Amino acid sequence: MTLSHMCQEPKVPLLHLRAIKTGKRTTQIFKQINYLVIGTCFLWGAVCPAQEKKAPDGIHKAIQARTDAIFDSLVLVRRDLHRHPEISGQEKRTAEFVTNYLLALGLEVKVGVGGYGVVGILKGKQGGKKIAWRADMDALKFDAQDPEVFGSIHKGINHYCGHDVHVTIALGMANVLAHHREQIKGTVYFIFQPSEENYKGAKSMISDGLFEGIAPEEMYAAHISPMPSGLVASKPGYLFADYKEIHVTYEASAADEEVIAFTKNLLSGLQNVPASSEFWDTQNLMDPTIGIGNPETIFQDYITVKENVTVSRQDGQVRISGILSASSASLMDAIPRRLQRSIDQSDFADRFMDIAFATEGFLYSTQRANIQNNSSLTEQAIQGIAGIYGQGSAIPLYGVIPDGRGDDFAYFQEKVPGVYFLLGGSNFEKGIIAMPHTPHFRVDETCIKSGVNYFSSLLIERTNN
């Protein structure tokens, strides 16, 4: 997961700068973590009050038994990976570790896909669907003291985004499903991706022929989050807001200041979130009445506009540019048409030349893909996990998170329909908060067991049904 579009250090999320204007950087970060912790507790209680875990049966009981049997070894795997983090494009040791583990399970393994990418192929005993699971492998450049006793041996490089946990869960899933391959009807691909933090790994694997060698019909992934360990969540469509820079261009003239003022007003008028809205307060993201877990959430159907609209002049043209966020593709895609209609009805229509989203650069351009979960698969996945492990295991979300996060799993979703989950990794009673990209990031390792159980069951359900 990238934060604030590929930042490599803790930052206050883009859209929350208005809510947190003062204080030192560290104070800002911990204030956000505290808000998320409180909000998540409310969400957890509101959705599944005092609910017992459901006891799985059949193949899912066998999956749980196998996960229990290998759990201690998976904890050791995670801690080894945590001690040896490797930044984007340098995941050599991690890739070798993954390769050897998969080979020991008897999987077919492809290496060197898009750099240090690894693909494990598990074929069931019968024909069926082909399903893929992705785990990202890279770590962060992050100059902070690792709070774990098994902390990083590489100064300034840490797994503060939880990718060590992602790799461990995927290896655990491969172990569990290989143990039960006789009951798999189909094929499972385990894709271990390099370079997620710089948003390059997925595209590199695709360009290197990933989907020429495998042909998944569905694809899934998960990312650690500050929700409680034992909980997964997702939603159809956007999980994170999309961000784009838009350019409005006119012929230059003596009346440039008028057209600039007019266009700035047009851009600011796109925002449909009042400055006084509770939207801007981070603690409300998971509030049970207005947060992302409530069907009536305020974090849906929104457009926001950054305040610093810019103006440039070149070759007899004047260009006004603004940075927008939107909670859905349909809202973002409609913006140029909305602006065009207003300009056509204005005194500046004869000077108008073009409206376009930025195509160069990356942070706010059309080059950056955004997570877009398949609606049907998302609903089936949440219902499936909850049906096996209880309603407290998997919940639907309704709001779109407006804090600048993203994941290049989105490029895979452009090729194959899929679902991206948030996986809880916190234990509030123990003071363990799994907030990625923060200096005191820690993970409750019981989330490894939950992840292996839930997602192994999901994949076998998807291949067999």
From TrEMBL:
It holds the Pfam family Peptidase_M20. The Mn(2+) ion enhances activity. Coiled coil: none annotated. InterPro entries: Amidohydrolase (IPR017439), Peptidase_M20 (IPR002933). Its cofactor is Mn(2+). Signal peptide: none annotated. GO terms for molecular function: carboxypeptidase activity; metal ion binding. Keywords: Carboxypeptidase, Hydrolase, Manganese, Metal-binding, Protease. Gene3D superfamilies: 3.30.70.360, Zn peptidases (3.40.630.10). Mn(2+) binds at residues 161, 163, 197, 223, 437. This is Metal-dependent amidase/aminoacylase/carboxypeptidase. It comes from Echinicola vietnamensis (strain DSM 17526 / LMG 23754 / KMM 6221).
